[in-house]
Amino acid sequence: MNAPNRYELYVLEEGERSVEVSEDTKIPNAATIKIVKQDHTLANLLRSQLLTMPQVLFAGYKVPHPLHPYFLLKIQTDGSVTPAQILENACTKLIGTIATLESKFQREFTYKDVDGGVQEDAYGAPVSAGNFEGRDYVDLF
Questions:
Q1: What pLDDT sits at residue 36?
Q2: What is the structure's pLDDT at 88?
Q3: Does the model's pTM come out above 0.85?
C-alpha cells in the first residue's frame, strides 16, 4: 500500500524540525511557514485565529498531498509585526481559548454530577426520574 506507517505521521525523525519559516521575497511582510507532522485540524485553527487579528492582511494554508504529513501556512502582515511573531501570538491565543473551553467543559460535568440535578432527555428537556429509567429516548415519542 502507498500509505506511510502510522507513526511516520506524527513522530519527528532525528534532526527534523517541526516548524520552518521562510520569508517571501516577492511579497512584503509575508512568509511561508511549513509545519510538519500536522494536518488540516491545526492548519484551520491557526488560519482562523490569524484572520481575527487586525495586523494580518492574508492567512491561508494548503496541504500539498494527503500522504505527506505537513502543511504550508502563508501569512502576510501590515508590517507592524513579523509573520513569525503574529503566528506565535495566534498560538498563544489558541492555547488560552482551548484552556477556557476545557475548564467550561469540566465545569459542566461537575454540575451534572451534583446530587439533585435535573435529568434531561436526549434533547435537553427536563424529565422526571421515574419516566426515563430503562427506556431509550426513542421510546418517549
A1: 92
A2: 96
A3: no
Half-sphere exposure of 81 (CA within 13 A, CB side): 15
* DSSP code for 14: T
Q: Are 29 and 76 in contact (CB under 8 A)?
A: yes
Q: Which is nearest to 18 in space by CA: 36, 33, 43?
A: 36
Phi/psi at 46 (5° precision): -65, -45
Question: Are 73 and 33 in contact, with CB atoms under 8 Å apart?
Answer: yes
Q: Please, which residues bridge with residue 72 across strands? A: 34, 62
Is pLDDT above 90 for 4?
A: no
Residues 6 or more apart whose Cβ sits within 8 Å of residue 45: 94
What residues does 115 pair with on adjacent strands?
none
CA distance 53 to 129: 48
The strands making up 56-62's β-sheet, listed across from edge to edge, are: 19-23, 30-36, 70-77, 56-62
Burial group, residue 77, by CB count within 10 angstroms (0-12, 13-18, 19+): buried
